[in-house]
Amino acid sequence: MKNIDFSDVNITGGYWQKRQEINRETTVHAVYERFRDTHRFAALTCTWKEGDPDMPHIFWDSDVAKWIEGAAYILKDGENQELTEIIEEAIDNIIQNSDENGYFNSHFLVTRKNERFTHRSQHELYCAGHLIEAAVAYYNITGRDRFLKAMCRYADYIEKVFKEEKSAAFTTPGHPELELALMRLYKATGEKRYAELAKYFIDEHGRHEKEKEPDGFANEYYNQDDVPLRNRRTAEGHCVRALYLLCGMADVAEEYGDEALKAACERCFDNITQKRMYITGGVGSTCLGEAFTVDYDLPNRTAYAETCAAISLAMFAGRMLKFGASAKYGDIVEKAMYNGIMSGVSMDGRSFFYENPLEVDPGFNDRNTSTVQKEHFSITQRVEVFECSCCPPNILRFLASIGGFLYGVDEDTLYVHQYMDSEAETEGVKLKVKTVYPADGKIVLSCKTSKQYLALRIPAWCENFHINREYERKDGYAYIKLTGADEIQMELDMPVRLVRANRRVHENAGRVAVMRGPVVYCAEGVDNGPDVRSIALDRSSRFELADSEFLLPVLRTVGYRPRETEQLYVKDSETYEKIPLTLIPYYAFANRGTTEMSVWILKK
Questions:
Q1: Catalytic residue among 152, 239, 308, 390
Q2: pTM (predicted TM-score)
Q3: Could you read off the pLDDT of 333-347 as tens digits, one per residue?
Q4: Cα–Cα separations (whole angstroms), residue 510 to 90, 169, 538, 539
Q5: Which CATH number fits domain 412-492: 3.40.50.150, 2.60.420.10, 3.40.50.300, 3.30.1300.10?
Q6: Domain map of the chain by residue range?
Q7: How much is the pLDDT for 212?
Q8: Which residue, among 600, 524, 521, 602, has the nearest Cα to 562 in the 3D structure?
Q9: What pLDDT, on a 0 to 100 scale, did the predictor assign at position 216?
Q10: Is 447 a catalytic residue?
Q11: Catalytic residue, candidates 69, 124, 220, 290
């Protein structure tokens, strides 16, 4: 299956039009201003010298590259002189300061000139990958190719050093990303060598003892080197590294018809989504190594659940649809989109979370007054920039190109993977979707296409639905035979439902999460008073929907809280009081000041 490119899709209304508007009018400028203030853009001039402040960091190029990529996607919606000038100035600096081989890295060019490709952990190839992605994006949107040509020279040099000469001090990227970027470069240029180089890196991961040397606190699992990739059965190590690598594996498997690599991707996908993923689509159970741990280890307060990890999970799930329509992949894209990704950006689009916990209890964060060293808990308010600021520009590029997750085509079928108020037009396809989903489940699709079938994903959470045409169900999709010009009406029932975790997720024993459609809800102290974790729900509770400032409805019901007492322990008796309980979409937590928050709620 081939995805319909986001450039052929317009989001025309509803939740995502508003989020794209905020992204276009606020986020792109807010991220640029912070990157300018912190000298990330200035680093591209390569004028830093010993004794100057703000030495270019090893990953600053990747921050800027993701911003360029996101800004390029925004140019799809029309000319923007301000963004274009910023991008062109950055490209000028990259091209002018690339060396005779095409190599560019603002850190190594000014600090350790004789140490390039000697430190596997220092993000050189990671930065190269993001620069390549930015160049491809800018070329695809504008047709301007000088940045693309510069990155082709850089990729040629990487091929020479790593594949031909084997003169680097390591074999594969310490932080995967280059693999998927090379596949994008191949698609943009038609130059097969870039696909071959991506495949080379995929083939070499996990095969070299020298790659397994511990790097500080890290080991072979952290660096994705514990086994050759075709033998991989579980997702291990640093989550973003693992998922970017899985994206590259999926791309290579699809290009080369590599069934063993595809099978490894499928095994890892199932391991993540069935045993190592939060209900929000977040992944990463610990701040130590920003990593996967073991099956069912999903703590809430100390969940790391990095925003970039949720984005890369959606990227991976979206790629798995290339192998054929299975609703489980679209289900995970949807789960991550509405929850673990969007919680990473404030409602006004100016500030960001790196970590996305499922519980916040600020009063106990600094509980140990006896030591200077404190336990790690996530921050309670989003900030505009981080020292490691990979997430803000990742949000920017994800939102600007979200239309690429919606639709796909094969020889005889048009697939609808996600439901947004939108229009798509490409060769042989003209589709218009009208909906306010997920505010409600009514969806109207107007379709003109030469394809024989329209396939609509029926989300796994949906128990009842209605379509005004005959259909056949297969792998979570409803297949409808088309007549040439069709209007199809579908309604997904969206009752509020209570969801429990597997009993092996010990932290959630006796608790439920509240969902409506794909949206996870949470309780905040600002609405419900103190000690949110002590509040209980009755399994027969009825919920009312109410308009909110959060673009989607809030839920109102009755909850139960233990009566307040000064006694530390009391006899177990009927000591609960009824309280009004308000639940908000999880993505909207921490937009009204520091307060308690919990996704998992006691069941009474």
A1: 390
A2: 0.97
A3: 999 999 999 999 999
A4: 54, 52, 12, 11
A5: 2.60.420.10
A6: 412-492, 496-603
A7: 64
A8: 602
A9: 64
A10: no
A11: 290
Taking the CA atoms of residue 26, residue 29, residue 33 and residue 39 in that order, the dihedral angle to the nearest 10 degrees is 140
Tens digit of pLDDT for each residue in 179-212?
Answer: 999 999 999 999 999 999 999 999 999 998 666 6
| Cα(522)–Cα(457) distance, integer angstroms | 26
Collapse the DSSP code of 579 into the 3-class scheme (helix H, G, I; strand E, B; otherwise coil) and give the result.
strand
Is residue 196 part of the annotated active site? The answer reads: no
The full DSSP string for 224-253 is T-SS-GGG--S--SBHHHHHHHHHHHHHHH
Q: Could you give the C-alpha distances from 248 to 44, 265, 405, 574, in angstroms and in order?
A: 27, 10, 17, 56
Q: Is the pLDDT of residue 561 over 90?
A: yes
Whole-number Å distance between alpha carbons of 106 and 535: 52
pLDDT band at 371 (very low <50, low <70, confident <90, very high): confident
DSSP SS3 for 44: helix
- Residue count of the chain, please give it: 604
Proportion of the chain above pLDDT 70, given as a percent: 99
Write the single-letter amino acid at 224: Q
Q: In angstroms, rounded to a whole number, what is the distance separating the alpha carbons of residues 67 and 396?
A: 7
Residue 317, judged by CB atoms within 10 A of its CB (0-12, 13-18, 19+), counts as buried
Spatial distance between the Cα atoms of 604 and 602, rounded to a whole number of angstroms = 6
